[in-house]
Amino acid sequence: MRGSGAFLSLVALAALAARPGPAAGDRSRAPRHEVDVEAALSQMVVLTDGRKHYVALVPLGDADLTFYGDGKTFHQLRVYGSSKDTGAGTESRRFWAPVSTRGGDLEHRGGRWTVRCSDRVTPLVQVSEKETRAILARAVFKKPFWKRQAYALGRTDAGVYYYVDKLRDDNRTVDDPNPATGFRLFVGRKGRLKEQRLTDSTLDSKGVVLSTKGGHLTVDHASGRMVWSAKRGKEELVFLPPSDNALVIYRDLGLYGRLGIPCDVM
Predict the structure, then answer these.
(1) pLDDT score of 13 more than 90
(2) d(CA 66, CA 214)
(3) Which of these, 31, 130, 164, 243, is most buried using a 10 Å CB contact count?
(4) What count of Cα atoms within 13 Å lies in the side-chain half-sphere of residue 61?
């Protein structure tokens, strides 16, 4: 057993050595869009559903280093809750999954890994050590795939939706503390919303005003109001808190496709 462990350690070191490093003189450990996993790489395992979808993580390790991908490119999952019992070897990681009724759950119980998305439970199996090292040697580990977040949602009494999204707050960087908000406005019925070309936007402590050639959308989160103003007059919209309408936004409106999470396909 000791000999086998030493052999695996040598394989792991060889895989690490084979990974491309930073250019000479470059002191950064990873590009801004990537995640530095070098310190954890030798402890990582790779799980698969058998359909070329993979999860990479360190069992009972740092939950922030949880990745999902195709075996070549892995994107970090936004894990917002985790628990583990090192004695029993069990753990659970809950990741951002707005298309699931309860978020996404990655669990290890009874020696088995599973992913739960709503009521669907998908078993995962650990790939062999040889395949694991081959995958990790060539893999690129990137920050979360999905970089936008819901900002505001409203609708008319006739069922026409006004939806606003923006760049996620966690895209802020040290050298750019005030990045562009990147607002987008979509209008239409479920499954048929169209992006509106913005001609101007105003953001302050009161809220946001988004302008198009056809009118202006005013969003005031403090008072829970959304108003659409056009030549024919103003229309008060039914204000729908995004936090209470994740399934409407990410599923029913039909705006988004792949989010870069296991629940895209599991």
Answers:
(1) no
(2) 44
(3) 164
(4) 16
Tens of pLDDT, residues 88-139: 999 999 999 999 998 999 999 999 999 999 999 999 999 999 999 999 999 9
Query: DSSP secondary-structure letter at 171?
Result: G
As given in the structure block, the two tokens for residue 138 are: 């060539």
Residue pair 232/226 in contact (Cβ under 8 Å)? The answer is no
Q: Beta-carbon neighbour count of residue 187 at 10 Å? A: 19
Q: What is the pLDDT of residues 172-224, one digit of tens each?
A: 554 555 556 799 999 999 999 999 999 999 999 999 999 999 999 999 999 99
Exposure of 10 by Cβ count < 10 A (0-12 exposed, 13-18 middle, 19+ buried)?
exposed
Q: 200-203 and 194-196 as β-strands: parallel, antiparallel, unpaired?
A: unpaired
User: What does the pLDDT read at residue 241?
Assistant: 97
Q: Which three-class secondary structure state does DSSP give residue 71?
A: coil
**Token pair listed for 130:** 């040889």
* Whether the predicted model's global pTM rises above the 0.90 cut: no
